[in-house]
Amino acid sequence: xxxxxxxxxxxxxxxxxxxxxxxxxxxxxxxxxxxxxxxxxxxxxxxxxxxxxxxxxxxxxxxxxxxxxxxxxxxxxxxxxxxxxxxxxxxxxxxxxxxxxxxxxxxxxxxxxxxxxxxxxxxxxxxxxxxxxxxxxxxxxxxxxxxxxxxxxxxxxxxxxxxxxxxxxxxxxxxxxxxxxxxxxxxxxxxxxxxxxxxxxxxxxxxxxxxxxxxxxxxxxxxxxxxxxxxxxxxxxxxxxxxxxxxxxxxxxxxxxxxxxxxxxxxxxxxxxxxxxxxxxxxxxxxxxxxxxxxxxxxxxxxxxx
Length: 306
Fold this sequence. Notes:
24% of the residues lie in helices and 36% in strands. It is α+β, with helices and mostly antiparallel strands. The strands form four sheets. Strands 1, 2, 3, 4, 7, 10, 11, 12, 13 and 14 form a ten-stranded mixed sheet that branches. Strands 15-17-18-19-16 form a five-stranded mixed sheet.
């Protein structure tokens, strides 16, 4: 008999394996935890591995912070071969000799540091007129795409061996590492395509703290639950505000509070009696509710009707 799904709140750092889509990986994890509701932040292609935060229950309300965060990757390029997709899934369309050394690679990598404009690949999930771009390319169609502004904060050569170049990168959201790899290889004069990609970081979260599917499968339910982080770990970058019971109740009813905390206007982590209750927006000395936990709103409604 299938076990009944349970309400579960928390964040799991998951190490997505090769050849699984992010959604299939999510469903496998969700079934392991018998969770009613779950979502992931930051899609990884089936050929990519690494850090995939899985958010259970109420944690799905606070994923925007991770979607906007910088991300780190370790990538490997096969030099000398261009493919139709820019990665190992495509067919080779051009072969060139490879004549590069470490000094040349270092000089090229330096060119990509900082802000630049990047053209998203056709083999991507970006939508055009309601359909992802990869659906157009499957029909042999190409659509006009807008250049995106991206920022490369760190770009380090990790290994150069034969026709393989491995690098690590820390980049802004919206950066396509596949496109970056193709651009680096093109600048080296030999072309190339991405053959391996592993996400190592999202914001403050690191791959070394993530759990593999095999590890989770070998655990008891209590051990798996102990792997979950609290909801407010998703929004640790925001200033915190502690409210008393009356203030929390008023805010949960949609009222604004007169407050100041010495920080610039913006989002706040909110706590009542030391317990995380959600997010608020502080503007001009007035605090408004932004995203509150459902239990807080229900408790306020009950107290109001009593």
